Amino acid sequence: MEAAVAMAADACVVSVRVLPDGDTMWIRIIGAVDVGSALALSRAVDRVRDARPRTIIIDLAGVTFAGSVLVHFLIGIHAAGRRSRIRLLRARPVIRVVVAATGVDQFVTFDGDLPG
After folding, report:
1. 31: phi > 0 → left, psi -120 to 50 → alpha, else beta; which?
2. Structural contact between residues 39 and 57, judged by C-beta atoms closer than 8 angstroms
3. Could you tell me the end-to-end alpha-carbon distance of the chain, in angstroms, rounded to an integer?
4. How far is 61 from 113, CA to CA, in rounded Å?
5. CA distances in angstroms from 113 to 32, 35, 36, 60, listed in the order given
6. Rounded-to-integer distance, Cα 23 and Cα 55, Å
7. Most buried among 37, 52, 61, 68, using CB within 10 Å?
8. Crossing angle for the helix pair 93-101 and 68-81, to the nearest 10 degrees
9. For position 2, what pLDDT does the model report?
10. Handedness of CA 36, 41, 43, 46 (dihedral sign)
11. Measured distance CA(12)–CA(89) in Å, rounded
12. Shortest CA distance to 28 belongs to which of 69, 76, 79, 63?
C-alpha cells in the first residue's frame, strides 16, 4: 500500500498557459516524467502546435525523474513550435546531462539551473 501512495504522490502533472503577452507559453512539469506522463506531455505538445508561441518556457524545478520520455517530449515541442525559442528553466544537473547526451541541447537554452 505504501508503494502505491508513493507512486501516486510522484505522478506527473503538466500545466500549460499562455502568458498575457500572447507570445510566450509557460509549461510547468511536476513529478516523474515517464511513460505514465506521455498523454499529458502529448497534450502540451498539441497546445504548442495550436498556439505557435515565439518563446516556450519549460519549468523543470518539480521534475523528480527524467529520461527518454523527457527527450521525446522536447523533440516534440521543438517540432510543434517550429521557430519557437525553447528555454528550460530550473533544470537539475542530471536533466542537463540527459539533454546534452542526446543532442537536444542544440535547440534549447538552459536558464537558472538548480543545484544537484
Report:
1. left
2. no
3. 30
4. 9
5. 18, 25, 25, 9
6. 6
7. 37
8. 70
9. 29
10. negative
11. 17
12. 63
More reliable by pLDDT, 82 or 50? 50
pTM (two decimals)? 0.87
Rounded to whole angstroms, how far apart are CA atoms 68 and 97?
Answer: 12
pLDDT tens profile 11-45? 799 999 999 988 999 999 999 999 999 999 999 99
Q: Please answer whether residues 25 and 57 qualify as being in contact, where contact means their C-beta atoms are separated by less than 8 angstroms.
A: yes
- 57 vs 110: CA distance, rounded Å: 10
Percentage of residues of the chain with pLDDT beyond 70: 88
- Give the burial string for 34-68 (b: 16+ CB within 10 Å, else e): beebeebbeebbebbeebebebbbbbbeebeebee
